């Protein structure tokens, strides 16, 4: 069974595309959603991106008015990878503040849902192997797939079972 498309999907990003941001708990690396989407479209021609559940949080403003803000969105990616139709889902989130500097003004839910969509695409794509090295820098799926064939994998699994039984 060929895994050529899966290897391309999970190939490490060129460092020119990798950016860094500090979210308050340390610096993390990321790639813009436009790059992720381009990679998916290029490698999965029948890619279908759909949205599902929208998550709202109710927040009271300084005047006591309850407002609903979009904080999450379910995103589903479906397409053919190495002759197999696959579907991956995840939720994207929006971590923008609910209010402007002026507490009587609120952030636009349309803008918030766009951010959720972008995050959801990246998270669902990670479930396909895109950018997986940004989450765990010690192991890369593409290296794993290229370094072993199915026969070697079966042999390693059988050896592990024997070792566990001893």
What can you see in these coordinates?
It contains five helices and five strands; from the N terminus they run αββαβββααα. With 166 residues, the chain is α+β, with helices and mostly antiparallel strands. The chain has a single domain, classed as Enolase-like, domain 1 (2-Layer Sandwich). The protein has a three-stranded antiparallel β-sheet with strand order 3-4-5. The protein has a two-stranded antiparallel sheet with strand order 1-2. Helix 2 crosses helix 3 (109-126). The longest helix is centred in the C-terminal third of the chain and has 18 residues, at 109-126. The mean pLDDT is 83.
Summarize, please.
The protein is an alpha+beta fold and 166 residues long. It is built from 5 helices and 5 strands.
Draw up the topology in text.
Elements: H1 4-9, E1 18-22, E2 27-31, H2 33-43, E3 48-60, E4 66-81, E5 84-93, H3 109-126, H4 141-147, H5 150-165
Antiparallel strand pairs: 1-2, 3-4, 4-5
Helix pairs in contact: 2-3
First-last Cα distance: 33 Å
CATH architecture: 2-Layer Sandwich
Major sheet size, sense and barrel closure = 3 strands, antiparallel
Order of helices and strands: HEEHEEEHHH
Mean pLDDT: 83
Total count of helical runs of at least 4 residues: 5
- Find the CATH superfamily: DNA repair protein Rad52/59/22
